[in-house]
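Escalation from tier 1.

The customer reports that the assembly of two entities below gives different structure tokens on two consecutive runs. Tier 1 could not reproduce it. I'm attaching the input and our single run for tier 2 to review.
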Amino acid sequence: MKAVHGIAAAVAAGIALAAGLAPAEEKSPALQEIEKYRAALAEGNPGELWEARGEAIWKEKRGPRNVSLEACDLGLGPGVVKGAYTVLPRYFADTDKVEDLESRLVTCMVALQGFTPEQAKKDPFANPGQKVPMDALVAYIASESQGMPMHVSLAHPKERQAYEMGKEIFFYRGASHDFGCVTCHGASGKRIRLQDLPNLTDPADARRAYTTWPAYRVSQGEVRSMQWRLNDCFRQQRFPELEFVSPASIALSMYLAKSAEGGVMNAPALKR
Amino acid sequence: MADPMKIRATMVGDKVEVKVLMAHEMETGQRKDSKGAVIPAWFIQNVTATANGKTVLSAEWGPAVAKNPFLSFRFSGAKAGDKVVISWTDNHGDKRTDEATIA
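Tier 1 run:
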């Protein structure tokens, strides 16, 4: 019993240290401390719990038709999960649309399982005390692309169109603060408080950023998807709410995914 | 029904290193919801690990342990191929038992 208390105490002390990090007088020591914090957390990424839950949900018979999602075509053929995240978003002939992972899952929940689109889109993100299937599915499917390079196609005119639209949204400034994605993510070496901001116009940064989403957010105790990330960025920009799986959200994902071309997937990652 | 644990058990020298991730809310009982009502305490109280029928770890936990806890420990007296069984019980009486083979 004593030994375990020791472990629990050691873990607690580690977290307390990390939480009590000194304010950044100088950037480099603060960053070093953050690196230590990340290293301490890295070996126990709770994102793996979402992966396991997502795999079970993928195989579970659900919905009015009582079928699983295992026949869902994520872009590499029906039921192929391995590597699917690296080719999304992409054009799907059956819906005649460009879809990202989340919107494709909605499509499959409707087409295969018989949910209404409203039901499939309801509760896209977990709330305190409320787990949702979507983020677990996203964690599972993304994890099946770990170690594989991003390779999104722009061959179809609609894929090209989505990319161009996403790029335009990325550079568009507006709303009450004359803000845009590019305000925070258009130059290197920026940060909000202690959080580094990737320069998404720089290929190396773009790869690093895109390939680490979805991610387990320690501060929220949840796995968050790319749709959530974009939704929250829009909130922070004081933009109108980015509707879940809307064409705008998919277009922005398309631009970011293409910017991360060649980046090796390492998700769900662990973020503060 | 609680979600499964993620357990890894590997030989490090002559000892077994066990790493466990548990899915649990670990509510402290100190927090309030958006309406101001106290969220009741809900946490893992007892954790045991057994290998070859022997208890190798027994712990009493409290609300100070973080959400989705990670536990790592080493013990001796088992070899590759043996099974490690981890169980927890929370203060609601909910239980979960999972096992892993030592690699």
